[in-house]
Amino acid sequence: MALLSKDQITSADDRQWEDVDVPEWGGKVRLLGMSGTERNAYQSSLVVLGPNGQPQRMNMADQLAKMVGKCLVGEDFERLFTDKEVRALGAKNGRVLERLGQVAARLSGLRKEDMEDAEGKSEPTPSDDSSSG
């Protein structure tokens, strides 16, 4: 199989999305998995740096609303809530946000098992370029 070109990579539609019933809100919402840039911004928003630039503590204020807000999109796949509007989302039912957060985390690769896979703590996958012969 040939290696992908830069154009093939950047034009690939690789972000997953899912429509989720939210009876508490009277309908469905669409969640789109975060891009790498959005995911990094979300994760950075949870860390408070000290004066020396080192992580000092976690900022869990509106953590669920931040994650869900980055993933909630309309039919046009444009975000419904900006980062500045996330507080309004945080005022909604915590049970609903938790349920949506679980979907958003799965679509964005933010679940514990996803992180362990990324850190190499899961089963190794065999490589096709073995040097034994």
Overview of the molecule:
The protein is α+β, with helices and mostly antiparallel strands. The chain has a single domain (16-116), classed as Phage tail assembly chaperone gp13-like (rbstp2171). Helix content is 39%, strand content 16%. It has 6 helices and 5 strands. The chain has helices spanning 6-11, 36-45, 63-71, 86-90, 94-108, 112-118, and strands at residues 17-22, 27-32, 47-49, 55-58, 72-73. The strands form 2 sheets. A 3-stranded antiparallel beta sheet has the order 1-2-5. The chain has a two-stranded antiparallel ribbon with strand order 3-4. Strand 1 and strand 2 (27-32) form a beta hairpin. The two termini are 20 Å apart.
Question: Quick gist of this model?
Answer:
By secondary structure, this protein is an alpha+beta fold. It has 6 helices and 5 strands, in the order H-E-E-H-E-E-H-E-H-H-H. A hairpin with a 5-residue loop joins strand 3 and strand 4.
Q: How much strand?
A: 15-25%
Number of strands: 5
Spatial gap, N to C terminus: 20 Å
Anisotropy-based shape = globular
What is the count of helical runs?
Answer: 6
Number of domains: 1
CATH fold naming: rbstp2171
Secondary-structure-derived class: alpha+beta
Q: What's the overall average pLDDT, rounded?
A: 87
Task: Work out the helicity level.
Answer: 25-40%
**Main sheet: strands, sense, barrel:** 3 strands, antiparallel
Any idea of the CATH class? Alpha Beta
